């Protein structure tokens, strides 16, 4: 499959999507959006089989500069055209946030505007020391898009989300970790190796169990206690008849080590 503005690779059961417009800091072009949709379809079709985790990153020392401002401000663009385009983008960001396998983003350099929210849609966000996050919309008199209103307050709380949106300021990697915007800061020199090692541990897990857990957790702020308990019961009913579960139980009965032991897979480290 040929792509214009991304690179797509699958190796060792890990898919990697690399945003690839380095001359434009990987700003979101129409071609990049189409490429992302096509790559995500492949990931969804192979989830739990050939693909156990997805990494999303950018090329050339930037994650994504957001929307391509050169194409903005035209008097010919109507509000309905903007709405139609964003609704299409929303389907894309929803797929990234809800695809039923672990999604990990690696931010090196700027992740601004829609590019910031694209990174934050992942289950786990890592940044290099050069990583930078910015809700840049306010700088051009716009409001957050690409899911920012949903994602941001769930990560950092309502008051901090307002501060980041109203100020449109830059947030460095260490502050991003401190306020809960990202999971951790990785080394500049070995960033992708460290992130691949993290994502690779999920190869030993039940993608079905993780996928169902992700589906429910993503709804947990919006549903009442009873509904969540019902979803839990339905998911457990399916999980406990999977071949993975049956094999794991047999290993326990045979006093064999677990196939999925997070600490041992990382040599005792928990992150």
- Biggest β-sheet description: 6 strands, mixed
The CATH C-level name of the largest domain is Alpha Beta
Rg, Cα atoms, Å:
19 Å
Helices and strands, in order, run as: EEHEHEEHEEHHEHEHHHHH
Task: Give the spatial strand order of the biggest sheet.
Answer: 1-2-3-4-6-9
> Beta-strand level of the residues, as a percent range?
5-15%
CATH topology of the largest domain: 2-enoyl-CoA Hydratase, Chain A, domain 1
Determine the fraction of residues in helical runs and give it as a percent range.
Answer: 40-55%
Number of strands: 9
Summarize the helices and strands and which ones pair or pack.
Elements: E1 6-11, E2 14-19, H1 30-46, E3 53-58, H2 79-98, E4 103-107, E5 110-112, H3 114-120, E6 124-127, E7 132-134, H4 148-156, H5 158-167, E8 170-172, H6 173-178, E9 184-185, H7 191-200, H8 207-217, H9 225-239, H10 243-253, H11 262-265
Parallel strand pairs: 2-3, 3-4, 4-6, 5-7, 6-9
Antiparallel strand pairs: 1-2, 7-8
């Amino acid at each position: 499959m040929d792509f214009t503005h991304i690179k797509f690779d699958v190796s060792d059961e890990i898919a990697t999507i690399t945003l690839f417009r380095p001359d434009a800091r990987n700003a979101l072009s129409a071609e990049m959006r189409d490429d992302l949709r096509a790559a995500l379809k492949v990931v969804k079709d192979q989830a739990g089989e050939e693909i156990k985790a997805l990494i999303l990153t950018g090329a050339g020392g930037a994650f994504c500069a957001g929307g391509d401002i050169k194409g903005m401000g035209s008097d010919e663009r109507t509000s309905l055209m903007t709405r139609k385009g964003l609704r299409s983008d929303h389907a894309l960001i929803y797929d990234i946030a809800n695809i039923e396998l672990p999604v990990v983003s690696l931010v090196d350099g700027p992740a601004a505007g829609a590019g910031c929210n694209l990174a934050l849609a992942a289950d786990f966000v890592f940044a290099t020391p050069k990583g930078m996050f910015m809700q840049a919309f306010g700088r051009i008199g716009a409001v957050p898009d690409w899911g920012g209103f949903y994602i941001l307050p769930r990560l950092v709380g309502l008051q901090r989300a307002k501060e980041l949106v109203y100020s449109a300021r830059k947030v460095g990697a260490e502050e991003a970790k401190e306020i809960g915007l990202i999971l951790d800061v990785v080394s500049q020199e070995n960033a992708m190796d460290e992130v691949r090692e993290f994502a690779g541990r999920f190869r030993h897990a039940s993608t079905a169990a993780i996928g169902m857990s992700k589906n429910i957790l993503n709804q947990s702020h919006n549903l009442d206690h009873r509904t969540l308990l019902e979803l839990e019961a339905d998911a457990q009913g399916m999980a406990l008849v999977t071949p993975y579960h049956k094999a794991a139980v047999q290993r326990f009965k045979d006093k064999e080590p677990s196939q999925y032991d997070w600490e041992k897979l990382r040599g005792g480290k928990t992150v």
